[in-house]
Structure formats: structure tokens, C-alpha cells
TrEMBL record:
Belongs to the class IV-like SAM-binding methyltransferase superfamily. RNA methyltransferase TrmH family. Keywords: Methyltransferase, Transferase. GO terms for biological process: methylation; RNA processing. InterPro entries: Alpha/beta_knot_MTases, MRM3-like_sub_bind, Ribosomal_eL30-like_sf, rRNA_Methyltransferase, SpoU_MeTrfase, SpoU_subst-bd, tRNA_m1G_MTases_N. PANTHER family: RRNA METHYLTRANSFERASE 3, RRNA METHYLTRANSFERASE 3, MITOCHONDRIAL. GO terms for cellular component: cytoplasm. Pfam families: MRM3-like_sub_bind, SpoU_methylase. This is RNA methyltransferase. Transmembrane segments: none annotated.
Length: 233
């Protein structure tokens, strides 16, 4: 199970068919979100509990608690590896440690209609900060965080996908000049270190966003969003 905080996120989860096990809410939240609380009481079979404001503060992952929480069932997303065999466009996140970056990329991937996203050695997608950053996109986009990186890349290649390593290297293919195949995947590396030489070597091609002025690198989420736009346009 994982925790959802806030009425909007809980409503999105319910709308996408996510199972809700328990609900906790403050007295103020019960008044403000009366219809949602009543719905949660039905969905949980009565496992909806009023708690104190102080306990809400303890449970909250934000500086100002919204006063309503739900314990949701883990999402059934582990069939994505089988989907690779049928082609499509994917993104692989490798060793990203900032939950906010992971969540932002998941949201961007959902926005452009990516076929799926893999998390290898990354911040847990069920981390409250990641969940919040996805703003509900994690309920919609196929994802998998169980795959081992090297085995995943080899499976992609064996399935006919062209794999791209995103790098900061002037000798790599410029994103602006690249024509992506119908079946391909881009790998995004760690925020500070990027991809290791070994991880890069496993991929078919190296690709970069060539920048102007004094800019020599971009935030991982920003770079991933640019790649996603070009990949799916």
C-alpha cells in the first residue's frame, strides 16, 4: 500500500480505479470534502477514521496538511516488460534519486502519451514526494520499477527497440537532427553524474541536447521533458 494526501489526488486515484483500503481525515476536512469522505466510507467498507489535527500534521508530507489521507493498494503495473515485444516508445530512468524529478518526468511522459516508463535504481515511485509530483499521472501511465537495467536494455534490443543513451557530449547525435524510430527507448541518467560509461555502452546510440550560450547542462526533469516531446511528436 502507499499513501495519498489531498482531496484532488485521492479523487484522481478513485477515478482511475485505484483500490482504497483506508481513509483518515480531520474534522475540518470532513466538512470541506463531505461528499468525498462519504464516498470513501463506502469504498473502504467503513474504514474511514476521523483523526486530530496534530496527527494530520504527523502524517502529512507537506508543511501545511490538507487533512485528508488514503491508504491505496499498490498499482498493478508489472506487465510492461511483456509490452516491449510489441514495439512502442519508452523512457528508462537510471539512478535518479530526487523524488520530485521522478514524479515530474512521469507526469511529462503521461502528457505526451508515452507507451511506458521504467525506473531502474531510482527514488521509489510510491515515495510521497514522488506521488505528489506525478499529480495523478502515475495512475494512468504504465510503469515498472522492478526491472534490472542491463537485462532490460538487452531485452529491448532483442525485441527490436533502438536504445538511446542521453549524454552531455558534443560528439553524440544532436537531438534536433535525429529521427526517432517507431520502436525505441531513451535512457536518462542520474541528476549529478549522468549515465556511467557501462550503462551508456549498452545502448545502441548516444544522443544529446546541444546547448547555446554558457549553459552546459540541464536539470534531469527538464532534459527528459525535451526528449519526450521530440520522441513522441
Amino acid at each position: 500500500a502507499f499513501v495519498l494526501e489531498g482531496a484532488r489526488l485521492i479523487e484522481d486515484a478513485i477515478g482511475e480505479g485505484v483500490g482504497i483500503k483506508y481513509c483518515f481525515f480531520s474534522g475540518e476536512a470532513a466538512k470541506k470534502h463531505e461528499s468525498l469522505v462519504l464516498r470513501l466510507e463506502r469504498l473502504t467498507g467503513g474504514r474511514a477514521y476521523k483523526i486530530s489535527d496534530s496527527l494530520c500534521g504527523v502524517l502529512s508530507d507537506t508543511s501545511t496538511s490538507q487533512g485528508i489521507f488514503a491508504a491505496a493498494s499498490a498499482l498493478d503495473k508489472f506487465n510492461l516488460i511483456d509490452k516491449i515485444k510489441y514495439g512502442g516508445k519508452y523512457m528508462v530512468l537510471r539512478n535518479l534519486q530526487d523524488p520530485g524529478n521522478v514524479g515530474t518526468i512521469v507526469r511529462a511522459a503521461d502528457a505526451v502519451g508515452l507507451d511506458g516508463i521504467f525506473l531502474c535504481g531510482c527514488a521509489d515511485i510510491y515515495n510521497p514526494k514522488t506521488v505528489r509530483s506525478t499529480m495523478g499521472s502515475m495512475f494512468r501511465i504504465p510503469f515498472d520499477q522492478s526491472a534490472e537495467y542491463s537485462a532490460l536494455v538487452m531485452l529491448m534490443k532483442d525485441s527490436g527497440l533502438v536504445t538511446y543513451a542521453s549524454v552531455v557530449d558534443g560528439d553524440a547525435v544532436d537531438l534536433r537532427e535525429n529521427a526517432f524510430e517507431d520502436a525505441c527507448a531513451i535512457v536518462i541518467g542520474n541528476e549529478g553524474r549522468g549515465l556511467s560509461d557501462g550503462d551508456t555502452a549498452l545502448c545502441d546510440k548516444r544522443i544529446t541536447i546541444k546547448m547555446k550560450g554558457n549553459i552546459d547542462s540541464l536539470n534531469a526533469a527538464t532534459a527528459a521533458s525535451i526528449f519526450l516531446w521530440e520522441l513522441t511528436k
